[in-house]
Amino acid sequence: MSIPKTQKQWLITGADKGLDGLVYQDAPVPTPGDHEVLVHLRGASLNYRDLIIPRGMYPFPLNLPVVACSDGAGEVIAVGSKVKKWKKGDKVLTLFNQGHQRGDMDIAASKTGLGGCFDGTLRQYGTFAETGVAKIPSNLNYVESASLVCAGLTSWNALYGLKPLKKGQWVVTQGTGGVSLFALQFAKAAGAHVIATTSTAEKAEMLKKLGADHVINYREDVNWGETARKLTPGGEGVEHVIEVGGADTFTQSLSAVKMEGVISVIGFLGGAAPKDNILETLSRVCTVRGVYVGSREQLEAMCAEIEKHDIHPVMDKTVFTLEKAKEAYEYMWAKKHTGKIPITIE
To answer: Using H for helix, E for strand and C for coil, what is the string for the chain?
Structure first.
C-alpha cells in the first residue's frame, strides 16, 4: 500500500480543559527513524487514565500536547533501515511505557508512556521504536489486542511481577473494569480460585460465566473483606488482591489478604485519600505494592499465555470509530461500559 502524507488524530492540548482540550485534527504521517517501525493502527481502547489526563488528575509524568491513548494495535507498513525485529505485514500491539523493556520500573521508563509523554494511538499511523511493540496474540483481532496494552499488562504484572501466582492460590478482584476482568481470566487460566466483588446481580452472572468461584455484592455486604477471608481454606485469606477502588475498598482489601499476601494497588476509583494507617501492613504482615503497567518482557509472556489458553478480553458491546472517540470518553466517564471499550481505526 502507498503511505499517505496526512492522517487524522486526537491531540490532548492541555490538562486543564477537560474533554474540550481533546482536539480532532489533521496531522502529517510520521516517517520512521532508523530503529523505528511505522504502524497503520487499526484498533485502540480507553483506560481510566485517558479520562483523567485531560482533567489534570493523572499522577505520572506528562509532556503535553500529546496524541491521546496508550492502547493500540495494527500492521507494520514500513521499517527503518536498521530494524531487525519486524517486517512489513507484521501485526503488533504497543508497549505502554516504551522504555520499560525488562526488570523493574525506573524514573526514566516512567517518562515514556504513550498518550502521556510520547504520542499515543488515537491516530491512523504512528512510529514506534522497534522495541516499543510486540506481536499480537494469533487468537485476537486488532481491537482485542489493543485492549491488552494497559489493563491486561497491569493485571499480569500484579499477579506475576512480585510473587508469581500459583495454582490453587486465592485472588480477590474488584468490580468489572478492564484490569479486574483480566485478573479474573488470568487467575482462572493459572488454576487459581477467584473471589470477585460487584454491585449488581447482572454483573455477578457475567463474573460467574468468566469463572469466578465466588461473587460478593459489596453493596449488600459492606464487610466483604471478612466474607472473602472466610471463604478461603482455614479462613487464612487470599494471596493476591487486585485493588482498584482506593479509599473506598482498601480497608476491605486489608481484611481479605493472607499473611505474606500482596495487595496490588492499581487505581483509585473510589478516592485517593486512604482511611487506613500504613502500619496495618505490619499487623497484617502483607505487602502493598503500587503497579505501573509492566515491561516488554512481561507483555510478551502475557501474550503467549493468552494464545495458549485462548483468552479473549471482555469488550463492551458499543464500538466507536476514531472520529467518534470523544463519545467513547464520555461513555466511559458515565460508567456505561463493561470491560474494555473498542475503538476501530480505518
So the answer is: CCCCCEEEEEEECCCCCHHHHEEEEEEECCCCCCCEEEEEEEEEECCHHHHHCCCCCCCCCCCCCEECCCEEEEEEEEECCCCCCCCCCCEEEECCECCCCCCCCCHHHHCCEECCCECCCCECEEEEEHHHEEECCCCCCHHHHHCHHHHHHHHHHHHHCCCCCCCCCEEEEECCCHHHHHHHHHHHHCCCEEEEEECCHHHHHHHHHCCCCEEEECCCCCCHHHHHHHHCHHHCCEEEEEECCHHHCHHHHHHHEEEEEEEEECCCCCCCCCCCCCCHHHHHCCEEEECCCCCHHHHHHHHHHHHHHCCCCCECCCCEEHHHHHHHHHHHHCCCCCCECEEECC
Dist CA 53 CA 76 (whole Å): 28
Q: Are 318 and 337 in contact (CB under 8 A)?
A: yes
Q: Is 329 within 8 Å of 198 (Cβ atoms)?
A: no
pLDDT for res 276: 75
Of 121-130, 224-233, 262-271, the poorest mean pLDDT is in 262-271
pLDDT of 301 reads: 98
**Predicted local distance difference test score (pLDDT) of residue 92:** 98
State the pLDDT at residue 227.
Answer: 98
List all residues 6 or more positions away from 180 whose beta carbon is below 8 Å from its beta carbon. 155, 173, 174, 196, 242, 244
**Residue 247: predicted pLDDT:** 77
What is the reported pLDDT for 94? 98
> What is the tens place of the pLDDT at every residue in 310-343?
999 999 999 999 999 999 999 999 999 989 999 9
Task: Look at the block and give the residue holding cell 463474573.
Answer: 207
Q: How confident is the model at residue 107 (pLDDT cuts 50, 70, 90)?
A: very high
Read off the C-alpha cell for 346.
480505518
